[in-house]
Amino acid sequence: MIFRNNRFPLQKMIRFASSSSSTTPNIKRFYKNVHILKADNHEPRYEIILDKRKLKTPKGNVFFVQNEPLASMIAAEWDSQKDKIVPSSIHLTTLANTVIDNPGGHTIDSYVEKLISYLEFDTVCYRNSLPTELNELQTTRLDPIVQWFADQFKCSMPVTNDVVLPDIDPHTLDIIRKYLRSFNQWSIVGIMFATENLKSLILTCALIARQISIEQAVSLSRIEETFQTSRWTSVEYHHDIEQYNIQSRVAAAIVFILLNFEKNYIYHKN
């Protein structure tokens, strides 16, 4: 179940996904050309070729994705590398590696249960009692997204000023489990990555539904940090860099989710 909304188009998410502020040098670029190979297979399968060699995962498996648009974006990640390969700038590659190698031995059900456990600590459900200005800011900005979640899934979601969230209604948990199980293994890995970066499954769901932009989601997930940073100007530069990096990671995750969830539609349409 993907909710359709064009307020925040996929193209803008792609722009963020392909960017990174990291300049950490890593492995020297060992190839000149990058292209895509459509494998001869019953299922759609696209591999990445670096010169004449197939790209491999960390575990040595042949790297592949299941639709051409995603393959093109991953090829662009590798083609955009300069003298050094910077792992922090190839988020889509990293997500696909996680699916193919599955280092944690996860199933869709195990991912779903892990995401459900994150919902109990969702950052948008917590408010600071003090200072008053921060509490008012959180209430003003976060209450609408919690209400959207409740309306969208026809469920209830508690909000608290305490350090522990009240128990979530079991009916709500069942609804969200059913929603999450509608995604395939590829998309669920993207949901996990976005949720971990935002510290919020609720914000991730809003992004999938295209109800908010990447910038808005990251901003909402960091209200307390931004508030504190505004009082300590010496760390503003570091805060801006971190926010930009999170935007890049989250955008990659959302693109990965949507393209993999809709892979069958893309394949058969072509």
Automatic annotation (TrEMBL):
Protein localization: Mitochondrion
Keyword Disulfide bond attributed: no
Signal sequence bounds: none
Entry keyword Chaperone: yes
GO cellular component, one term: mitochondrion
Keyword tags: Chaperone, Mitochondrion, Transit peptide
GO process terms (BP): mitochondrial proton-transporting ATP synthase complex assembly
InterPro entries: ATP12_ATP_synth-F1-assembly, ATP12_ATP_synth-F1-assembly_N, ATP12_ortho_dom_sf
Superkingdom field: Eukaryota
UniProt family annotation: Belongs to the ATP12 family.
Protein name: ATP synthase mitochondrial F1 complex assembly factor 2
Organism field: Dermatophagoides farinae
Gene behind this protein: ATPAF2
